[in-house]
């Protein structure tokens, strides 16, 4: 596998040819905001928060799905990018029903952290206040569609790590929403293994442990990392 040399924020770095710009930046200690990215599962470029500027192109590119290339000159932190990222975060708040003060993930939410990082002290857009449902039919977990940001982490972790394929996406545009088993109540699912990986993968308070109260939604990302790498590192015997 060949090595590519490129520049990110005027810093000369080297990366494997199969690496993405996000991976190359992270290896070099350069921070790029993300929301739909989750270590260990495939990237889809859904949230667009990792958009970067590449010299010679007017089009912003998502760092999580853009491969490195020899001689690229990448900027991850311009005024233009910060403006786009703040607008994206504001849109996520305006399009959902995110009330942090009563959310199980308050102070433990990646969307909330991004809002702070972007310097967002208010939402300049008009709130949609959509009519979304809460499903607590499962005996251990619940899903609150009001807090979902459509990152598809739950879908990918269920497909790629657990292999259950319980979660999927339905609808289009503002009607898009995650579903279980062809839009059946989660508690009636015949494919769900109740493993909890989707709960640990969710960046907000959308998927939660039943019984969690405000600010109690803790997640163990290390558990997902272990499941992804355990077979390669022979940390268990099959």
UniProtKB/TrEMBL annotation:
Q: Which residues form the 4Fe-4S ferredoxin-type domain?
A: 139-170, 183-212
Instruction: Using the record's annotation, list all stretches that form the 4Fe-4S His(Cys)3-ligated-type domain.
Output: 80-119
Q: Which UniProt keywords apply?
A: 4Fe-4S, Iron, Iron-sulfur, Metal-binding
Under PROSITE patterns, the record lists: 2FE2S_FER_2, 4FE4S_FER_1, 4FE4S_FER_2, 4FE4S_HC3
Q: Which Pfam families match?
A: Fer2_4 (PF13510), Fer4_Nqo3 (PF22117), NADH-G_4Fe-4S_3 (PF10588)
The record's section on SUPFAM superfamilies has:
2Fe-2S ferredoxin-like (SSF54292), 4Fe-4S ferredoxins (SSF54862)
Highest taxon listed in the record's lineage: Bacteria
Q: Where is the 2Fe-2S ferredoxin-type domain?
A: 2-80
| Alphabetized PANTHER family for the sequence | HYDROGENASE SUBUNIT (PTHR24960:SF84), PHOTOSYSTEM I IRON-SULFUR CENTER-RELATED (PTHR24960)
Indicate what this protein is called per its UniProt record: Bidirectional hydrogenase complex protein HoxU
Q: Which organism is it from?
A: Anabaena subtropica FACHB-260
Q: The organism's lineage? A: Bacteria, Bacillati, Cyanobacteriota, Cyanophyceae, Nostocales
């Amino acid at each position: 596998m060949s090595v590519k040399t490129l520049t990110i924020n005027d810093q000369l770095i080297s990366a494997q040819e199969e690496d993405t710009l996000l991976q190359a930046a992270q290896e070099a200690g350069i921070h790029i905001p993300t929301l739909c990215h989750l270590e260990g599962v495939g990237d889809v470029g859904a949230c667009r928060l990792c958009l970067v500027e590449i010299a010679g192109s007017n089009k912003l590119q998502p760092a999580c799905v853009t491969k490195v290339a020899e001689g690229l000159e990448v900027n991850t932190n311009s005024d233009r990018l910060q403006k786009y990222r703040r607008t994206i975060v504001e849109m996520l708040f305006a399009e959902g029903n995110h009330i942090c003060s009563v959310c199980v993930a308050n102070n433990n939410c990646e969307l909330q952290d991004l809002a702070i990082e972007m310097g967002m002290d208010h939402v300049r857009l008009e709130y949609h206040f959509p009519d979304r449902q809460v499903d607590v039919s499962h005996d251990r977990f619940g899903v609150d569609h009001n807090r979902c940001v459509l990152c598809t982490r739950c879908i990918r972790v269920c497909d790629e790590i657990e292999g259950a394929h319980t979660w999927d996406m339905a609808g289009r545009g503002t009607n898009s929403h995650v579903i279980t088993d062809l839009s059946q109540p989660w508690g009636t699912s015949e494919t769900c293994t109740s493993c909890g990986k989707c709960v640990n993968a969710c960046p907000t308070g959308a998927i939660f442990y039943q019984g969690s109260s405000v600010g109690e939604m803790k997640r163990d990302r290390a558990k997902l990392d272990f499941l992804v790498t355990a077979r390669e590192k022979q940390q268990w015997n099959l």
